[in-house]
Amino acid sequence: MTKPAGKFFYGWYVAAICLLALVVSNGLAIGGIPVFYKFVQNELVANDSVPQDRIQSVYGYAPAITFFLAGLLGPLAGYLLQKTSAKILMVAGCIILGSGVVIYSQADSVAMVYLAHALLGASLAFVGVLVCTVLVSNWFSKRRGTALGIVLTGTSFGGVVIPQIVTPLIQAYGWRTAMFAVSLLVWVILLPAVIFLVKNRPSELGLLPDGSAPETVHEMIAPAEGIPLVKALKMPIFWIFGTTAALIFYTIFVVTQQLNLYLQSPVIGFTPSQAAGVQSLLFGLSVIGKFLYGFLSDRFPISKVMLVSAALMVISTLTFLYFNTVTIYVFAVIFGLNYGGMFVLLQLMVAEHFGVKEYGKILGAVILIETLGASSGTIITSKIADADGGDYTRAFYSLILITSLSFVATLTIHALYRKQNSLNDFETAG
Predict the structure, then answer these.
(1) 430 residues of the chain, pLDDT tens digit each
(2) 8 A C-beta contact, residue 303 and residue 413
(3) Minimal CA–CA distance to 376: which of 54, 30, 68, 56?
(4) Which contacts (CB < 8 Å, 24+ apart) does range 268-273 have?
Protein backbone atom coordinates (compact mmCIF):
# COMPACT_ATOMS: atom_id res chain seq x y z
CA MET A 1 0.00 0.00 0.00
CA THR A 2 1.34 3.41 -0.92
CA LYS A 3 1.36 6.34 1.37
CA PRO A 4 -0.54 9.49 0.50
CA ALA A 5 1.30 12.71 -0.03
CA GLY A 6 1.63 14.71 3.15
CA LYS A 7 0.91 18.38 3.69
CA PHE A 8 4.61 19.15 3.46
CA PHE A 9 6.68 17.29 0.88
CA TYR A 10 9.59 15.47 2.51
CA GLY A 11 11.76 16.38 -0.47
CA TRP A 12 12.09 19.86 1.00
CA TYR A 13 13.64 18.34 4.15
CA VAL A 14 16.13 16.53 1.93
CA ALA A 15 16.78 19.78 0.05
CA ALA A 16 17.41 21.55 3.39
CA ILE A 17 20.03 18.96 4.40
CA CYS A 18 21.67 19.28 0.99
CA LEU A 19 21.69 23.06 1.44
CA LEU A 20 23.37 22.63 4.82
CA ALA A 21 25.85 20.15 3.33
CA LEU A 22 26.92 22.65 0.66
CA VAL A 23 27.15 25.51 3.17
CA VAL A 24 29.53 23.49 5.32
CA SER A 25 31.47 21.52 2.67
CA ASN A 26 32.00 24.30 0.15
CA GLY A 27 32.27 26.89 2.91
CA LEU A 28 35.17 25.02 4.47
CA ALA A 29 36.81 23.56 1.36
CA ILE A 30 36.40 26.44 -1.12
CA GLY A 31 34.42 29.55 -0.14
CA GLY A 32 35.70 30.27 3.37
CA ILE A 33 39.18 28.75 3.39
CA PRO A 34 40.87 31.65 1.49
CA VAL A 35 40.47 33.78 4.64
CA PHE A 36 43.18 31.59 6.19
CA TYR A 37 45.60 31.74 3.24
CA LYS A 38 47.49 34.90 4.18
CA PHE A 39 48.02 33.72 7.78
CA VAL A 40 49.25 30.30 6.66
CA GLN A 41 51.50 31.95 4.03
CA ASN A 42 53.11 34.15 6.68
CA GLU A 43 53.78 31.16 8.94
CA LEU A 44 55.24 29.02 6.15
CA VAL A 45 57.63 31.82 5.21
CA ALA A 46 58.50 32.50 8.87
CA ASN A 47 59.42 28.85 9.58
CA ASP A 48 61.44 28.61 6.33
CA SER A 49 59.14 26.02 4.77
CA VAL A 50 59.04 27.99 1.52
CA PRO A 51 60.92 31.06 0.17
CA GLN A 52 59.07 34.36 -0.05
CA ASP A 53 59.39 34.48 -3.84
CA ARG A 54 57.57 31.13 -4.22
CA ILE A 55 54.80 31.55 -1.63
CA GLN A 56 52.12 32.61 -4.14
CA SER A 57 52.66 29.38 -6.05
CA VAL A 58 51.83 27.37 -2.91
CA TYR A 59 48.36 28.85 -3.00
CA GLY A 60 48.11 28.28 -6.69
CA TYR A 61 48.73 24.56 -6.31
CA ALA A 62 46.85 24.07 -3.00
CA PRO A 63 43.36 25.07 -4.23
CA ALA A 64 44.12 23.36 -7.54
CA ILE A 65 44.65 20.12 -5.61
CA THR A 66 41.29 20.61 -3.88
CA PHE A 67 39.33 21.13 -7.04
CA PHE A 68 41.23 18.56 -9.09
CA LEU A 69 40.63 15.83 -6.50
CA ALA A 70 36.95 16.78 -6.36
CA GLY A 71 36.75 16.42 -10.12
CA LEU A 72 38.92 13.32 -10.38
CA LEU A 73 36.73 11.48 -7.87
CA GLY A 74 33.52 12.86 -9.39
CA PRO A 75 33.07 10.00 -11.88
CA LEU A 76 33.70 7.52 -9.04
CA ALA A 77 31.02 9.21 -6.94
CA GLY A 78 28.65 9.15 -9.92
CA TYR A 79 29.31 5.44 -10.38
CA LEU A 80 28.82 4.69 -6.68
CA LEU A 81 25.50 6.53 -6.72
CA GLN A 82 24.29 3.81 -9.10
CA LYS A 83 25.50 1.09 -6.70
CA THR A 84 24.84 2.47 -3.21
CA SER A 85 22.94 5.25 -1.47
CA ALA A 86 23.63 8.97 -1.47
CA LYS A 87 23.45 8.88 2.34
CA ILE A 88 26.43 6.50 2.61
CA LEU A 89 28.50 8.70 0.29
CA MET A 90 27.57 11.83 2.25
CA VAL A 91 28.55 10.23 5.57
CA ALA A 92 31.93 9.25 4.10
CA GLY A 93 32.34 12.78 2.73
CA CYS A 94 31.63 14.33 6.14
CA ILE A 95 34.30 12.18 7.81
CA ILE A 96 36.89 13.06 5.15
CA LEU A 97 35.99 16.77 5.32
CA GLY A 98 36.18 16.99 9.10
CA SER A 99 39.51 15.15 9.14
CA GLY A 100 40.93 17.45 6.45
CA VAL A 101 40.06 20.60 8.39
CA VAL A 102 41.55 19.20 11.62
CA ILE A 103 44.79 18.26 9.81
CA TYR A 104 44.89 21.74 8.21
CA SER A 105 44.70 23.32 11.65
CA GLN A 106 47.95 21.54 12.57
CA ALA A 107 49.78 22.20 9.29
CA ASP A 108 53.36 23.48 9.66
CA SER A 109 54.72 22.54 6.23
CA VAL A 110 53.79 22.75 2.57
CA ALA A 111 53.29 18.96 2.50
CA MET A 112 50.66 19.14 5.27
CA VAL A 113 48.90 22.01 3.50
CA TYR A 114 48.74 19.96 0.31
CA LEU A 115 47.52 16.87 2.23
CA ALA A 116 44.75 18.90 3.86
CA HIS A 117 43.68 20.32 0.49
CA ALA A 118 43.66 16.81 -1.00
CA LEU A 119 41.28 15.64 1.75
CA LEU A 120 39.09 18.72 1.29
CA GLY A 121 38.89 17.97 -2.43
CA ALA A 122 38.08 14.30 -1.87
CA SER A 123 35.29 15.25 0.52
CA LEU A 124 33.63 17.45 -2.10
CA ALA A 125 33.19 14.46 -4.41
CA PHE A 126 31.00 12.76 -1.79
CA VAL A 127 29.28 15.54 0.13
CA GLY A 128 29.47 18.34 -2.42
CA VAL A 129 27.62 19.54 -5.49
CA LEU A 130 27.50 16.29 -7.47
CA VAL A 131 25.88 14.06 -4.84
CA CYS A 132 23.56 16.82 -3.61
CA THR A 133 22.48 17.68 -7.17
CA VAL A 134 21.68 14.06 -7.97
CA LEU A 135 19.85 13.61 -4.65
CA VAL A 136 17.69 16.70 -5.19
CA SER A 137 17.04 15.68 -8.81
CA ASN A 138 15.69 12.36 -7.48
CA TRP A 139 13.15 14.24 -5.36
CA PHE A 140 12.09 16.96 -7.83
CA SER A 141 11.09 17.04 -11.50
CA LYS A 142 8.79 19.95 -12.40
CA ARG A 143 10.28 22.08 -9.65
CA ARG A 144 13.87 20.91 -10.15
CA GLY A 145 15.17 24.31 -11.26
CA THR A 146 13.75 26.10 -8.24
CA ALA A 147 14.84 23.35 -5.84
CA LEU A 148 18.38 23.20 -7.22
CA GLY A 149 18.58 26.98 -7.30
CA ILE A 150 17.79 27.05 -3.57
CA VAL A 151 20.09 24.15 -2.67
CA LEU A 152 23.05 25.38 -4.68
CA THR A 153 22.94 28.71 -2.87
CA GLY A 154 24.64 26.68 -0.14
CA THR A 155 27.94 26.80 -2.03
CA SER A 156 27.77 30.58 -1.74
CA PHE A 157 26.36 30.84 1.78
CA GLY A 158 29.47 29.05 2.97
CA GLY A 159 31.58 31.80 1.44
CA VAL A 160 29.45 34.40 3.22
CA VAL A 161 29.14 32.76 6.61
CA ILE A 162 32.53 31.12 7.17
CA PRO A 163 34.65 34.32 6.70
CA GLN A 164 32.42 36.20 9.13
CA ILE A 165 32.76 33.40 11.69
CA VAL A 166 36.48 32.80 11.38
CA THR A 167 37.76 36.39 11.04
CA PRO A 168 36.97 37.37 14.68
CA LEU A 169 38.07 33.90 15.85
CA ILE A 170 41.43 34.35 14.12
CA GLN A 171 41.87 37.79 15.67
CA ALA A 172 41.01 36.46 19.14
CA TYR A 173 42.60 33.00 19.19
CA GLY A 174 44.85 32.63 16.11
CA TRP A 175 44.22 30.86 12.83
CA ARG A 176 44.90 27.32 14.12
CA THR A 177 42.29 27.45 16.88
CA ALA A 178 39.81 29.15 14.55
CA MET A 179 40.21 26.44 11.91
CA PHE A 180 39.83 23.65 14.46
CA ALA A 181 36.72 25.34 15.85
CA VAL A 182 34.96 25.46 12.47
CA SER A 183 35.59 21.71 11.99
CA LEU A 184 32.87 21.26 14.64
CA LEU A 185 30.35 22.36 12.01
CA VAL A 186 30.98 19.00 10.38
CA TRP A 187 31.17 16.77 13.45
CA VAL A 188 28.37 18.30 15.53
CA ILE A 189 25.86 19.60 12.95
CA LEU A 190 26.22 18.20 9.43
CA LEU A 191 27.12 14.56 10.08
CA PRO A 192 24.19 13.88 12.48
CA ALA A 193 21.76 15.64 10.11
CA VAL A 194 22.83 13.42 7.20
CA ILE A 195 22.64 10.22 9.25
CA PHE A 196 19.18 10.83 10.68
CA LEU A 197 17.31 12.82 8.03
CA VAL A 198 18.48 12.00 4.49
CA LYS A 199 16.26 9.72 2.36
CA ASN A 200 17.59 8.70 -1.03
CA ARG A 201 14.41 8.64 -3.14
CA PRO A 202 10.73 9.59 -2.76
CA SER A 203 9.83 5.93 -3.39
CA GLU A 204 11.19 5.16 0.10
CA LEU A 205 8.17 7.07 1.41
CA GLY A 206 5.77 5.89 -1.28
CA LEU A 207 5.93 9.15 -3.19
CA LEU A 208 6.77 10.43 -6.64
CA PRO A 209 9.02 13.43 -7.37
CA ASP A 210 7.48 16.79 -6.38
CA GLY A 211 5.28 15.11 -3.77
CA SER A 212 2.65 13.28 -5.79
CA ALA A 213 1.29 10.03 -4.41
CA PRO A 214 1.57 7.24 -7.02
CA GLU A 215 -1.60 5.41 -7.92
CA THR A 216 0.18 2.13 -8.62
CA VAL A 217 3.31 0.34 -7.48
CA HIS A 218 4.47 0.27 -11.11
CA GLU A 219 4.30 4.04 -11.26
CA MET A 220 6.30 4.32 -8.06
CA ILE A 221 9.18 2.20 -9.33
CA ALA A 222 9.14 3.28 -12.99
CA PRO A 223 12.67 3.39 -14.38
CA ALA A 224 14.44 6.71 -14.81
CA GLU A 225 14.74 8.03 -18.34
CA GLY A 226 17.81 9.46 -19.99
CA ILE A 227 20.98 8.87 -22.02
CA PRO A 228 23.69 6.52 -20.68
CA LEU A 229 27.21 7.85 -20.14
CA VAL A 230 28.73 5.72 -22.93
CA LYS A 231 26.39 7.31 -25.48
CA ALA A 232 26.81 10.81 -24.01
CA LEU A 233 30.60 10.65 -24.46
CA LYS A 234 30.07 10.15 -28.21
CA MET A 235 27.92 13.29 -28.53
CA PRO A 236 29.58 16.62 -29.51
CA ILE A 237 27.24 18.52 -27.17
CA PHE A 238 28.78 16.73 -24.18
CA TRP A 239 32.24 18.03 -25.02
CA ILE A 240 30.90 21.52 -25.66
CA PHE A 241 29.28 21.41 -22.20
CA GLY A 242 32.60 20.26 -20.75
CA THR A 243 34.58 23.00 -22.50
CA THR A 244 32.12 25.66 -21.38
CA ALA A 245 32.28 24.43 -17.79
CA ALA A 246 36.11 24.36 -17.87
CA LEU A 247 36.31 27.97 -19.08
CA ILE A 248 33.68 29.25 -16.65
CA PHE A 249 35.23 27.50 -13.66
CA TYR A 250 38.70 28.74 -14.63
CA THR A 251 37.43 32.24 -13.85
CA ILE A 252 35.22 31.27 -10.91
CA PHE A 253 37.98 29.41 -9.12
CA VAL A 254 40.62 32.10 -9.66
CA VAL A 255 38.25 34.74 -8.27
CA THR A 256 36.99 32.74 -5.29
CA GLN A 257 40.47 31.49 -4.31
CA GLN A 258 42.81 34.34 -5.20
CA LEU A 259 40.85 37.60 -5.16
CA ASN A 260 41.39 37.71 -1.39
CA LEU A 261 45.18 37.64 -1.92
CA TYR A 262 44.96 40.22 -4.74
CA LEU A 263 43.03 42.62 -2.51
CA GLN A 264 45.63 42.28 0.28
CA SER A 265 48.57 42.84 -2.09
CA PRO A 266 50.37 46.23 -1.98
CA VAL A 267 48.71 47.20 -5.29
CA ILE A 268 45.24 47.31 -3.64
CA GLY A 269 46.22 47.43 0.04
CA PHE A 270 43.05 46.08 1.67
CA THR A 271 43.23 44.81 5.25
CA PRO A 272 42.30 41.16 5.94
CA SER A 273 38.89 42.22 7.27
CA GLN A 274 38.23 44.44 4.21
CA ALA A 275 39.19 41.61 1.85
CA ALA A 276 36.96 39.19 3.80
CA GLY A 277 34.12 41.72 3.48
CA VAL A 278 34.47 41.83 -0.32
CA GLN A 279 34.56 38.06 -0.44
CA SER A 280 31.42 37.81 1.69
CA LEU A 281 29.69 40.32 -0.61
CA LEU A 282 30.72 38.29 -3.66
CA PHE A 283 29.39 35.04 -2.22
CA GLY A 284 26.32 36.72 -0.78
CA LEU A 285 25.28 38.02 -4.19
CA SER A 286 25.96 34.63 -5.74
CA VAL A 287 23.29 33.28 -3.36
CA ILE A 288 20.79 35.65 -4.96
CA GLY A 289 22.08 34.75 -8.41
CA LYS A 290 21.62 31.02 -7.87
CA PHE A 291 18.07 31.46 -6.65
CA LEU A 292 17.24 34.00 -9.37
CA TYR A 293 18.63 31.99 -12.27
CA GLY A 294 17.16 28.76 -10.91
CA PHE A 295 13.76 30.48 -10.87
CA LEU A 296 14.25 31.88 -14.40
CA SER A 297 15.31 28.48 -15.76
CA ASP A 298 11.88 27.05 -14.87
CA ARG A 299 10.24 29.80 -16.99
CA PHE A 300 12.58 30.44 -19.93
CA PRO A 301 14.84 28.26 -22.12
CA ILE A 302 17.96 27.46 -20.14
CA SER A 303 20.28 28.21 -23.09
CA LYS A 304 18.93 31.78 -23.35
CA VAL A 305 19.24 32.42 -19.62
CA MET A 306 22.75 30.99 -19.67
CA LEU A 307 23.75 33.25 -22.58
CA VAL A 308 22.70 36.37 -20.66
CA SER A 309 24.65 35.26 -17.59
CA ALA A 310 27.79 34.54 -19.63
CA ALA A 311 27.63 38.00 -21.26
CA LEU A 312 27.36 39.71 -17.87
CA MET A 313 30.36 37.75 -16.60
CA VAL A 314 32.43 39.21 -19.46
CA ILE A 315 31.26 42.71 -18.56
CA SER A 316 32.22 42.19 -14.92
CA THR A 317 35.82 41.27 -15.76
CA LEU A 318 36.28 44.49 -17.76
CA THR A 319 36.51 46.25 -14.36
CA PHE A 320 39.97 44.70 -13.95
CA LEU A 321 41.21 47.30 -16.46
CA TYR A 322 40.33 50.01 -13.93
CA PHE A 323 40.47 48.10 -10.63
CA ASN A 324 40.18 50.43 -7.64
CA THR A 325 38.22 50.77 -4.38
CA VAL A 326 35.04 51.59 -6.36
CA THR A 327 35.21 49.14 -9.27
CA ILE A 328 36.13 46.30 -6.89
CA TYR A 329 32.60 46.45 -5.53
CA VAL A 330 31.07 46.83 -9.01
CA PHE A 331 32.89 43.66 -9.99
CA ALA A 332 31.74 41.83 -6.84
CA VAL A 333 28.09 42.69 -7.54
CA ILE A 334 27.96 41.75 -11.23
CA PHE A 335 30.27 38.74 -11.06
CA GLY A 336 28.73 37.43 -7.84
CA LEU A 337 25.20 37.39 -9.27
CA ASN A 338 26.23 35.71 -12.50
CA TYR A 339 28.79 33.22 -11.28
CA GLY A 340 26.08 32.00 -8.94
CA GLY A 341 23.61 31.77 -11.80
CA MET A 342 26.02 29.98 -14.11
CA PHE A 343 26.77 27.47 -11.36
CA VAL A 344 23.12 26.41 -11.29
CA LEU A 345 22.51 26.60 -15.03
CA LEU A 346 25.34 24.21 -15.87
CA GLN A 347 23.89 21.52 -13.59
CA LEU A 348 20.39 22.03 -14.97
CA MET A 349 21.48 21.93 -18.60
CA VAL A 350 23.17 18.57 -18.11
CA ALA A 351 19.99 17.18 -16.48
CA GLU A 352 17.75 18.64 -19.20
CA HIS A 353 19.76 17.31 -22.11
CA PHE A 354 20.89 13.91 -20.82
CA GLY A 355 18.11 13.02 -18.39
CA VAL A 356 18.41 11.46 -14.92
CA LYS A 357 19.08 7.81 -15.85
CA GLU A 358 22.86 8.19 -15.43
CA TYR A 359 22.86 11.82 -14.36
CA GLY A 360 25.42 11.23 -11.62
CA LYS A 361 27.88 9.57 -13.98
CA ILE A 362 27.49 12.21 -16.69
CA LEU A 363 27.69 15.13 -14.28
CA GLY A 364 30.76 13.52 -12.73
CA ALA A 365 32.40 13.38 -16.16
CA VAL A 366 31.55 17.04 -16.83
CA ILE A 367 32.91 18.03 -13.41
CA LEU A 368 36.15 16.18 -14.16
CA ILE A 369 36.60 18.29 -17.29
CA GLU A 370 35.75 21.55 -15.51
CA THR A 371 38.34 20.80 -12.83
CA LEU A 372 41.05 20.89 -15.47
CA GLY A 373 40.06 24.48 -16.21
CA ALA A 374 39.68 25.44 -12.55
CA SER A 375 42.95 23.83 -11.46
CA SER A 376 44.97 25.29 -14.31
CA GLY A 377 43.47 28.70 -13.55
CA THR A 378 44.82 29.00 -10.00
CA ILE A 379 48.23 27.58 -11.01
CA ILE A 380 48.67 29.93 -13.98
CA THR A 381 47.47 32.93 -11.96
CA SER A 382 49.87 32.21 -9.07
CA LYS A 383 52.81 31.73 -11.46
CA ILE A 384 52.14 35.11 -13.08
CA ALA A 385 51.78 36.73 -9.63
CA ASP A 386 55.08 35.25 -8.42
CA ALA A 387 56.79 36.49 -11.60
CA ASP A 388 55.36 39.97 -10.94
CA GLY A 389 56.55 40.09 -7.33
CA GLY A 390 53.18 39.18 -5.78
CA ASP A 391 51.17 41.55 -8.00
CA TYR A 392 48.01 39.87 -9.36
CA THR A 393 47.08 42.69 -11.77
CA ARG A 394 48.38 41.13 -14.98
CA ALA A 395 47.10 37.69 -13.98
CA PHE A 396 43.57 39.01 -13.50
CA TYR A 397 43.66 40.77 -16.90
CA SER A 398 43.75 37.29 -18.48
CA LEU A 399 40.27 36.58 -17.06
CA ILE A 400 38.82 39.00 -19.62
CA LEU A 401 39.96 36.63 -22.37
CA ILE A 402 38.78 33.51 -20.53
CA THR A 403 35.27 34.87 -19.88
CA SER A 404 35.04 35.99 -23.52
CA LEU A 405 35.87 32.46 -24.65
CA SER A 406 33.25 31.05 -22.25
CA PHE A 407 30.69 33.41 -23.80
CA VAL A 408 31.55 32.06 -27.28
CA ALA A 409 31.15 28.49 -25.99
CA THR A 410 27.80 29.38 -24.43
CA LEU A 411 26.71 30.99 -27.70
CA THR A 412 27.55 27.72 -29.46
CA ILE A 413 25.34 25.79 -27.03
CA HIS A 414 22.51 28.26 -27.61
CA ALA A 415 22.86 27.91 -31.40
CA LEU A 416 22.75 24.11 -31.15
CA TYR A 417 19.63 24.29 -29.00
CA ARG A 418 17.92 26.62 -31.50
CA LYS A 419 18.82 24.23 -34.33
CA GLN A 420 17.47 21.26 -32.38
CA ASN A 421 14.23 23.08 -31.57
CA SER A 422 13.81 24.05 -35.23
CA LEU A 423 14.20 20.41 -36.26
CA ASN A 424 11.65 19.35 -33.65
CA ASP A 425 9.18 21.97 -34.93
CA PHE A 426 9.73 20.78 -38.51
CA GLU A 427 9.14 17.14 -37.55
CA THR A 428 6.00 18.09 -35.63
CA ALA A 429 4.63 20.06 -38.58
CA GLY A 430 5.43 17.18 -40.94
Answers:
(1) 344 444 689 999 999 999 999 999 998 998 788 889 999 999 999 999 888 888 888 988 999 899 889 989 988 998 898 888 999 999 999 999 999 999 999 999 999 999 999 999 999 999 999 999 889 988 988 888 788 878 888 887 888 888 888 989 999 999 999 999 999 999 999 999 999 999 998 888 888 888 765 554 444 444 557 888 899 999 988 999 999 999 999 999 899 889 988 999 888 999 888 988 898 899 889 888 888 887 888 788 888 999 999 999 999 999 999 998 889 999 999 999 998 888 888 888 887 888 877 878 888 889 889 988 988 999 999 999 989 988 999 999 999 999 999 999 999 988 887 776 544 443 344 4
(2) yes
(3) 68
(4) 268/323, 268/328, 272/35, 272/38, 272/167, 273/167
Q: Where are the beta strands (DSSP E) in 321-417?
A: none
pTM exceeds 0.70 for this model: yes
> Please, what are the domains in the chain?
11-204+216-429 (1.20.1250.20)
CB 315 within 8 A of CB 334: yes
Cβ count within 10 A of residue 66: 30
What is the rounded (10 degree) CA torsion for 328, 315, 255, 153? 100
